[in-house]
Amino acid sequence: MANPNDPALRSWIDIAPTSDFPIQNLPFGVFETDERGPRVGVAIGEYVLDLYAVAQFGYFEDLELGPKMPKIFRRRSLNQFIALGRPAWRAVRQRISELLRHDNPTLARNEEAMHSCLLRQSDVRMLRPVRSHNYTDFYSSIEHATNVGIMFRDPANALLPNWRHIPIGYHGRASSIVVSGTDIRRPNGQRKAPDAAAPTFGPSQQLDFELEMAFIVGRGTELGDTVPIQNAEDYIFGMVLFNDWSARDIQSWEYVPLGPFLGKSFGSSVSPWVVTLDALEPFRVAGPVQEPEPLLYLRQLDEHNFDVNLEVGIQPEGGLETVVSHSNFGLMYWSMAQQLTHQASNGCNLEVGDLYASGTISGTTPDSLGSMLELAWRGTRPVPLADGSERKFLQDGDTVTMRGYCEKDGLRIGFGEVTGKILPANTL
Amino acid sequence: MANPNDPALRSWIDIAPTSDFPIQNLPFGVFETDERGPRVGVAIGEYVLDLYAVAQFGYFEDLELGPKMPKIFRRRSLNQFIALGRPAWRAVRQRISELLRHDNPTLARNEEAMHSCLLRQSDVRMLRPVRSHNYTDFYSSIEHATNVGIMFRDPANALLPNWRHIPIGYHGRASSIVVSGTDIRRPNGQRKAPDAAAPTFGPSQQLDFELEMAFIVGRGTELGDTVPIQNAEDYIFGMVLFNDWSARDIQSWEYVPLGPFLGKSFGSSVSPWVVTLDALEPFRVAGPVQEPEPLLYLRQLDEHNFDVNLEVGIQPEGGLETVVSHSNFGLMYWSMAQQLTHQASNGCNLEVGDLYASGTISGTTPDSLGSMLELAWRGTRPVPLADGSERKFLQDGDTVTMRGYCEKDGLRIGFGEVTGKILPANTL
């Protein structure tokens, strides 16, 4: 069998070289149309491959996917498919790769099947790909943590003492994770300016994005179990882009001592296509040197970061988009494997579909920062947009779009985008 | 129809006056036996009423509980039943009250039905009553927050500036909520003594309980919706006892700046019977005076606290239990209505089954504190046990049991208990 990551593979579907979804990617998502209920699909070029239809035509029959086939592909989330386990994910991806190869006539020459299985992405609605019952947001970019420390604490001691020892994280709100394209309503909340006598309640004046990536857990554990660092990636199904919308004024008033709460829980956006860790394999890179060396349970060999180019654009209502940041996921100080092993190190049970977000991914230059807070440096250097306006934080009507892709030796594996538009706050 | 809270009601089942489960209570839970899969039941005296059996005998037929009947009573959680809404909860509780009344022969004289519907509590295994996809832990006892502030921050400014303005809370880990009776394994984790040069990884040396109560959401909202304070209790199905196990050494090293994480997520225990807010109605009390007056969205009239007597016992392996604390839920500074309204105030969507815990419920006297941290005052005044030993924190083999009940005018409505035994940490 051909390696589905082989850069030489081609599909009988015409795919632009700049597409995020060549035959080497094959990310999983959930879509619906007016005629078809929620179904699992795979992105290929400008198309979606309907896996329920593929299964109905019998193309998965010899894969031994279990008694729930083909119903697992007619679900509102990927969870049941993911729960089948890595051998199943790999078998399905391998089969899809075969079916889409330029030299395989099985699907390409079966007009009825092709018509039934392939839909244009522009003709479907993408849904939230995974139902995550548990969502942790880490804080694993050393540049971001340092920037926040400089702004809000002590520039001379910007990183807190625990930061280089622990992949710091907190539990986020799972219910308000929404798929790309969902509008985000500006939250009302309590905030208090440092010089104000008392707090007030009203629309956040410091609405922000956070450029993040997140991984989806593909294998659960029992309470009391742990995950050795060398096995941690076996528990990861794939990755998405993640916008951890943040209301800085609400957050700064509420977060001491128990952490972020309503400053975050009004919404978090995910991209609709989950790129498998298998597809990302060619893009492994070493992370930053960790100093001091982590404790034994977090110590890893080899390369556990992934080289994903990221960008953030802001488009004002009716205007053109300005790309305000370029960053890279490969910069992360703590790897996904370390995050996952740490999460489970106290015996906390993992569940299939758990979402673990990276924390804001900031680079080392002023144009590579992952939030408005940092880009405009707490409002002191407003960010210019193409329409001549500028931003300290987000305005109503702004659409924020994040994109990500890997590129190496002529092969491009992309994540598509996660986008959301700010609606005005509810009137009080 | 008789008011199911009427203190004069009696059942044809013999119920001890000290029972937590008289005919005026009728809490809901989920049980199983070797013969019967998971089913919804109601506690009555020393018995469980099997609602699936009751439904099969046709006793709910005229209640119009919808097309999912009677399957909703053959489920591993109460969620589907709760999702039917308050009119359904009330209709079912009313009907059960009627069936169990001393003067109603319908069930009492139908030997076949009675045999099928009533099981001894000692013959069933109780399961986690609700599947909570979202769990928030509040911090709403002013005595607890003050004690923690005195111990870890500034005795002169023990309460943080936001505390009297916001029902402070944080998202907890939903996956590790377990039912009473589940053993709790001592977690391993990173901790660093203040005078140590570097952290180490190993078993927590400061394992603690937190005496809490929690409420279960019975009605969801859409993202962007809010819950006016005057309607907040309409969204609450009922309450349980809650032990928020805490590893203080892990917590104190990890929690700045993003809050508690692995110091809590290794397990949280709930009592198996959910006492409805309807059953608690006779036990309303006013809460403490709130000063300053909360902002308008949190301002409430009437009485929104509930007078629940609470106690905590510690039983060493093979020894007798010592009750180490007596507290009361009526002391809480922030009410459940205020917590829920605050949670939803930024548009965060609620889901049926959400669990909102109160935070540690401490009283004003040294014997009414809700955690070992406070009872032993950070290890400075060890707590004596009946077997002659003493505790600064919990030891392996200790069983912690929390109990709660309301009592007024001869009527007692109880919660049963939430209990858990500490197992030794996994070897590294």
From TrEMBL, chains A, B:
<keyword id="KW-0828">Tyrosine catabolism</keyword>
<feature type="binding site">
    <location>
        <position position="360"/>
    </location>
    <ligand>
        <name>substrate</name>
    </ligand>
</feature>
<keyword id="KW-0479">Metal-binding</keyword>
<feature type="binding site">
    <location>
        <position position="251"/>
    </location>
    <ligand>
        <name>substrate</name>
    </ligand>
</feature>
<dbReference type="InterPro" id="IPR005959">
    <property type="entry name" value="Fumarylacetoacetase"/>
</dbReference>
<keyword id="KW-0585">Phenylalanine catabolism</keyword>
<keyword id="KW-0460">Magnesium</keyword>
<feature type="binding site">
    <location>
        <position position="212"/>
    </location>
    <ligand>
        <name>Ca(2+)</name>
    </ligand>
</feature>
<keyword id="KW-0106">Calcium</keyword>
<dbReference type="Pfam" id="PF09298">
    <property type="entry name" value="FAA_hydrolase_N"/>
</dbReference>
<feature type="binding site">
    <location>
        <position position="139"/>
    </location>
    <ligand>
        <name>substrate</name>
    </ligand>
</feature>
<dbReference type="GO" id="GO:1902000">
    <property type="term" value="P:homogentisate catabolic process"/>
</dbReference>
<dbReference type="InterPro" id="IPR015377">
    <property type="entry name" value="Fumarylacetoacetase_N"/>
</dbReference>
<keyword id="KW-0378">Hydrolase</keyword>
<feature type="binding site">
    <location>
        <position position="137"/>
    </location>
    <ligand>
        <name>Ca(2+)</name>
    </ligand>
</feature>
<feature type="domain" description="Fumarylacetoacetase N-terminal">
    <location>
        <begin position="24"/>
        <end position="127"/>
    </location>
</feature>
<comment type="similarity">
    <text>Belongs to the FAH family.</text>
</comment>
<dbReference type="GO" id="GO:0006559">
    <property type="term" value="P:L-phenylalanine catabolic process"/>
</dbReference>
<feature type="binding site">
    <location>
        <position position="153"/>
    </location>
    <ligand>
        <name>substrate</name>
    </ligand>
</feature>
<dbReference type="GO" id="GO:0046872">
    <property type="term" value="F:metal ion binding"/>
</dbReference>
<dbReference type="InterPro" id="IPR036462">
    <property type="entry name" value="Fumarylacetoacetase_N_sf"/>
</dbReference>
<dbReference type="InterPro" id="IPR011234">
    <property type="entry name" value="Fumarylacetoacetase-like_C"/>
</dbReference>
<protein>
    <recommendedName>
        <fullName>fumarylacetoacetase</fullName>
        <ecNumber>3.7.1.2</ecNumber>
    </recommendedName>
</protein>
<feature type="binding site">
    <location>
        <position position="244"/>
    </location>
    <ligand>
        <name>Mg(2+)</name>
    </ligand>
</feature>
<feature type="binding site">
    <location>
        <position position="210"/>
    </location>
    <ligand>
        <name>Ca(2+)</name>
    </ligand>
</feature>
<feature type="active site" description="Proton acceptor">
    <location>
        <position position="144"/>
    </location>
</feature>
<dbReference type="Pfam" id="PF01557">
    <property type="entry name" value="FAA_hydrolase"/>
</dbReference>
<feature type="domain" description="Fumarylacetoacetase-like C-terminal">
    <location>
        <begin position="136"/>
        <end position="418"/>
    </location>
</feature>
<feature type="binding site">
    <location>
        <position position="264"/>
    </location>
    <ligand>
        <name>Mg(2+)</name>
    </ligand>
</feature>
<dbReference type="GO" id="GO:0004334">
    <property type="term" value="F:fumarylacetoacetase activity"/>
</dbReference>
<feature type="binding site">
    <location>
        <position position="268"/>
    </location>
    <ligand>
        <name>Mg(2+)</name>
    </ligand>
</feature>
<feature type="binding site">
    <location>
        <position position="255"/>
    </location>
    <ligand>
        <name>substrate</name>
    </ligand>
</feature>
<dbReference type="GO" id="GO:0006572">
    <property type="term" value="P:L-tyrosine catabolic process"/>
</dbReference>
<dbReference type="InterPro" id="IPR036663">
    <property type="entry name" value="Fumarylacetoacetase_C_sf"/>
</dbReference>
<feature type="binding site">
    <location>
        <position position="244"/>
    </location>
    <ligand>
        <name>Ca(2+)</name>
    </ligand>
</feature>
<comment type="pathway">
    <text>Amino-acid degradation; L-phenylalanine degradation; acetoacetate and fumarate from L-phenylalanine: step 6/6.</text>
</comment>
